Structures are given as structure tokens and as C-alpha cells.
Amino acid sequence: MEAAPRIEEALTAALAHAEAPGAPPGLAAALRHAVFPGGARIRPRLLLAVALACGDDDPAASDSAAAAIELLHCASLVHDDLPCFDDAAFRRSKPTVHRAFGERLAVLAGDALIVLAFETLGRGAAGSPQRLAALLGIVGRSVGSPFGIAAGQAWECEPCVDLSRYQRAKTGALFAGATEAGAAAAGAEPAPWRTLGGCIGEAYQVADDIRDVAADPEELGKPVGQDLALGRPSAVRELGFEGAIRRLRHLVSEATDTIPQCPGADMLRALIVEESKKFLPKELSRHAA
User: Fold this and answer.
1) What CATH number is associated with residue 94?
2) Residue 280: CB partners within 8 Å, gap ≥ 6?
3) pLDDT of 282 over the 70 cut
4) I want to staple 44 with a disulfide (CB 3.0 to 4.6 A). Which of 66, 117, 154, 209 is the partner?
């Protein structure tokens, strides 16, 4: 099965548990609103691509890890959009969770998605206890402190921020977790895969900084100009527009150079190059070519 239907099937199964009879209807609806329809699903797709490159001999483990990574990403978006952070009105071309269901349910939905991610991982990888132990550590580190996405969000609350450190945590951590988890789910040593995920994650964040100043909000599906309005660290603010484009190209090149030896290395390298072309809208991609 191709990656996209595998991911959607795993997410649908996960949400079915959260929406079981007895769940508060408003919370169940908020959870579904946060997860479906999804965005590019780039993190779980990356995870499955690495798992496939390493053999993917336990699809149940890799599918549950992919779902867990995406659920955590969705949780981070729900929390990022809250009035205390970005106060965003729409996400993925629809109202944000707090606009659609209220702030209280949005906070609870984000929390519930985090718990659901680990529950999903535990269920799906239960048949491989050693792999599950590794996966729990990898995924936990990618979302917590000191270097996970929660820490990345917390850097926005500090008076002085190092851009690279901020981007490695805010965005890179979950990408690094995805590549490591893909390897671990397939029984490969995860550590060598961390650099690949970190490079792709930083590249994606740089592209997001570029989109924030130059993209069409209708095409992007979320507001633009947020970095400047909220005083957030930005590659464009620090490097300039052309400098950010050069940084993006360098990171994609670095990512392909750091792929560890594995049976599917060539396939994975080609996939990363192709997928990186989608980081920016068409009118901006010409600058990055």
C-alpha cells in the first residue's frame, strides 16, 4: 500500500478509539476537526519512506509510529493557534479548533491528541517490545524538553533566541523523530538517521519562513505575516529573502548527502529531492530552483 492511504487508515483507526461511545461529543468533534482533512502529512510520509528504505518488515509498528507523529504534529498546531500564542483564525483552509469549538475544548483536544499518539504507538508496536521501547524514547524526546517541539514553542517566550536552536526544536525535532522512528520501526539503528530528519526539518522551517512573507494566504491555508507581527525568529528576517532561499537549497542538499547506507538509499534520495520542490508554492519555487 502507498504511504498516503496507510497514514489515513492508521489515523482513522486511532481517532475511532478517541471517538468511542461515551466520549464527550464536543471533544470528539474537535479531535476530528484537528486531524481531518490533513495537510501534506509530510512527517508521517517521511517516517514511512525511511521505514521502507530500511526494509519495513513490521508495517504495524511503522504505521502506528507514523500515526503517532502526525497526531503530535496536529496537537502542536492546535496549541500554536491558541489566543495565547498565534491567535490564528484559520488553519488548513478552515477555522482553527479554538475558533470552531472554543478555547477550552481546543486546549483539551491538543492534550488528548498527545495522549492518543502514545496510546496508538503502544497498541501498534506491542508485538515488537524492543522496537516499541526505542520508539517511545524517540517520539517522547521529539515532543518534550529540552529539545522537542514543546521546547521550540517555549523559545518564543524567551527574550533572546538563537535562530538555529529555535528551528531545530520548533520544527526539526519532529522531523528528526520521524526519520529515527522510521528506522527503529524497521529494526534499524535509529541514531544515524537523526541528521537527515534535522536537515529536512530545518529546510521545511526555512521554507515556512519564506512562505510567511511571500505566499498567498488562500493558497497556503493559513495567515501570513505572522512572524513579523508576533516578533518570532525567522530565516527571512535574519538572512534576507535571497539568503533564506540559499539556506533552503543548502539544507536539502545536505539532507540527501546524510542518508545512511540502506537498501533503499537511492529511492529515498530521489524522493527527498522531489518532495522538497513542494515546500514552496509554485511562484516561489522558481527562486529556489
Assistant:
1) 1.10.600.10
2) 207, 210, 211, 215, 248, 287, 288
3) no
4) 66
